[in-house]
Amino acid sequence: MNLYAIKFGESSLFAKYIYRDIKSDEKMQISWSYYLAQYNNKTILFDVGFRDQIIAEKWGITLINIEDEINHLTNLNQIDVIFITHSHFDHIDNLDLFRDSLIIISYDEYMNVINNGKPSTRERLLKENVITVKNEFLFDNKFKFKVIGGHSIGSSVIYFEENDKSYVITGDECYNCSNLIGNRPIGVYSNTEKNESFISDALQNEYIPLPCHDLNLFNKYKKISSNIVQII
Ligand SMILES: [Zn+2]
Predict the structure, then answer these.
(1) Hey, which of 54, 139, 147, 178 would disulfide with 182, CB 3.0 to 4.6 Å?
(2) Domains in the chain: boundaries
(3) Contacts (Cβ under 8 Å, ≥6 apart) of 65
(4) CA of residue 88 to ligand 1 center, whole Å
(5) Confidence class of residue 128 from pLDDT cuts 50, 70 and 90?
(6) Across the chain, what does the average pLDDT equal?
(7) How far is the CA of 118 from the centre of ligand 1 (A)?
């Protein structure tokens, strides 16, 4: 398997959103990113990012043009499978770009898009090739998609093993590796107990966290190009 982290933006964010135990108004620099895997002759995305300049400006995000960098890895028109961790804009809004991929999403996040989502995302989810998950779903005997519901109503994570190590793609159940490693729950939640128990369980089982907003990841792992690192 190859697994890459792809950074499509950077900004600062209130540290109290990232860590529930912070009360001050200090800010932290974060990445906006998602993951791409090549496994068993399939290309898989874990979240898809967004591209709306107006939303980017509202959040103070500098969007990065990563198309050329991704084209060196894969053809974005041929993504077989997409896991969606939750339906916040930065994780799902580009979904309309992927017409033929199989989409795996929790039932609650799916319903949230159907009822309140952006029209283009809703339209895409109403097409075929969508699996909705109420608890957990094992894909290709490798990736265990599990609904946690700590960050948002149906927020989910993906567990897998590779080379005798255990990994978890956390969505925003962790913003940062140190949420998991330091056992520090997130500051933006719909159910903080569910977030707490996800974090303590993953810590106890020594999962390596792969979050979507940790800028340090891009120094920690092997650089493939300016905004892409190879995890596996
Ligand atoms: Zn996010």
Answers:
(1) 178
(2) 2-230
(3) none
(4) 7
(5) confident
(6) 97
(7) 16
Q: What is the pTM of this model?
A: 0.97
| CA 6 to mean position of chain CA atoms | 11
Nearest residue to 91 (alpha-carbon basis) of 17, 35, 159? 35
CA 16 to centroid of ligand 1, rounded, Å: 14
CATH fold of 2-230, please? Metallo-beta-lactamase; Chain A (3.60.15)
Q: 91 C-alpha to center of ligand 1: Å?
A: 6
Query: How many other CB atoms are found less than 10 A from the CB of residue 78?
Result: 11
With a CB cutoff of 8 Å and minimum separation 6, the contacts of 163 are 232
Q: Cα of 169 to ligand 1 centre, how many Å?
A: 12
Beta bridge partners of 4: 36, 230
Residue 11 Cα, ligand 1 centroid: separation in angstroms?
12
Eight-class DSSP state of 191: -
